[in-house]
Amino acid sequence: MIADLTVLAAKAQQYYQYPTSLGGGGNSFAQLTPDADGIAILAGTAFTNNVNGAYAIKTAGNADSVVIRGVGKVLVRDGIFPTYDITVKPNTTIVQKIY
Fold first, then answer.
1. Which of 15, 45, 56, 89 is the most buried (most CB within 10 A)?
2. What distance in Å separates the CA atoms of residue 13 and residue 30, rounded to the nearest whole number?
3. Quick one: 79 exposed, middle or buried, by C-beta within 10 A (0-12, 13-18, 19+)?
4. Which residues pair with 57 in a beta bridge?
5. Which residues of the chain have pLDDT under 70?
6. What's the structural domain count of the chain?
7. Where are the beta strands (DSSP E) in 1-99?
8. CA distance linking residue 90 with residue 65, whole number of Å
9. What pLDDT shows up at residue 24?
């Protein structure tokens, strides 16, 4: 899951850096919305819903950052699915374990 989140974070940073004329964000994450359209900008369904987990944009992007959430598909203790958030900024990422 962490590897998948890292790939999505790199794609979000790439999107941020590309000019809008080339289909990028033009130094903004704002078009990365917390719905199917927002995550589809970064990757297709085969990647965002794979054997490792399901990935979606948790917090809508803005000029400075976007938060992507991954929920695992293998139950861990107490019947909980592992859940991680990755906060993506133009040059950094921060992974946080939720469950």
1. 15
2. 12
3. exposed
4. 68
5. none
6. 1
7. 53-59, 66-72, 83-88, 93-97
8. 7
9. 96
